[in-house]
Amino acid sequence: MEKIENSEIDIDKIKSTNAITLISLIITIILLIILTGIVIILSLGENGLISKAKYAKEKQNQINAREKLEITLLEANTEKEVNSEYNNNSFLDNILKQNGISVNGNVVGVDNYKFILDRDKLIILDVIDKDVKTDYEIKSINKSDISVLIVIQSEENIIEQVECPNGNIIYSDNKCNVNIEYNIIPDCDYEFIITTVTGKKLKKIIRKDYTDGLLQQIESLNDKGKLTLEVGGTTTNNIYETVKYSINAINHNGDMVLDGTNTFEGATLKNGIYSFGDASDVGNSTVLLKVNGNLIINSNITLTSVSGSNNGPKGFIVYCTGTLTNNGTITMNNNSAYVTGQNIYLYKNTNKEYNMVNALGGNAGARAVGNTSGTRNGGEGGTGASYNSSGGGRRSCKFL
Questions:
Q1: pLDDT per residue as tens digits for the range 189-213
Q2: What CATH number is associated with residue 172?
Q3: pLDDT digits (tens, 9 = 90+) for 53-67
């Protein structure tokens, strides 16, 4: 038997070969991951194979529906030539329905697509594209306009492009939606022209109206309790802003007679003083007393708002739809709130301008000072001018 010589095994060479094999495996895995990502992007991206396939399918389906309708109209045209009983009303309707076409006047439906017919000429006038929805959200409020994000979308892959009012054209990569950032001025119409994949042009109008003033909203208000009213207006410096007002609404239906005996929801009565509002909410809301009827305040009777410890409501509005007869007193003495002021857009005129009260009113009264014992009165608040409110007066102090 032949003797086999012992041989040495090169361990380092084996380790080196294994290392090279492992590196090759890792590189292969990385390449497969990259290729998989590319395939996913090409397939599922906004302009990927799946989106293109949906678009092609949608377009082909509409072509097939149109051809089906055209063949049916050729049949109807034949009947028109040879059948003396033919008419473009019930007879034509029966032909259409026998071919699985729904009928609603001059609008017919074929396989979820709608077309407009000329019944006399038996031709297709137009195709009614599937619904394209338009909406917008406010992104920011600027000094002279509003920046909005306009969202135009369709679930049926039919949007080709959108022409903006300034002439810019935005193309839809996925045929489903287009997002457009645009600056608009309230109370103006902005026309966006949408071109569908079938070539049809749709007009969509974007408009942000100035809201009604605070008093106009109160006029139609039927709710009660704590709520928020929002007004968008232009300040005296021609700056557009949106202001939210927290309201504690007391809505009374019918006449209200304040005589020191009658009691009403939302009011406390003590010593001939009717205090409206929620004492736990002072400083946070404006108290609104809306009387849907006549309001009568008898002599020696006071109408005011509630007050809390060292604070009152942000404001007190009395709105009467009927006649206000005041033989008593309406006051807010000692009930004012120590809060940041707001511009108050009371009423929107027909020219879109507002009657308003500015957030900054007259100066506050001077503080009471003295270096001898006795009582010193605080100064009176400054007089309001040019729609400004008056300043608050200072309390009197007693020096010991």
A1: 899 999 887 777 888 888 877 667 7
A2: 2.60.40.1930
A3: 666 777 788 788 888
**51 φ/ψ angles, rounded to the nearest 5 degrees:** -60, -40
Residue range of the domain that includes 188: 133-206
Domain's final residue, options 206, 227, 254: 206
Q: In angstroms, what is the C-alpha Rg of the chain?
A: 38
Kindly state whether residues 328 and 267 are assigned to the same domain: yes
Q: So what's the pLDDT on residue 399? A: 43
157 sits in the region (left: phi over 0; alpha: psi -120 to 50; else beta) called: left
In a domain, 196, yes or no: yes
Q: Which residues contact 346 (CB under 8 A, 6 or more apart)?
A: 213, 214, 215, 354, 355, 356, 357
Residues 6+ apart with CB under 8 A from 392: 336, 364, 365, 381
The pTM (predicted TM-score) of the whole model is 0.47
Cα angle vertex 37, ends 33, 39, to 5°? Answer: 115
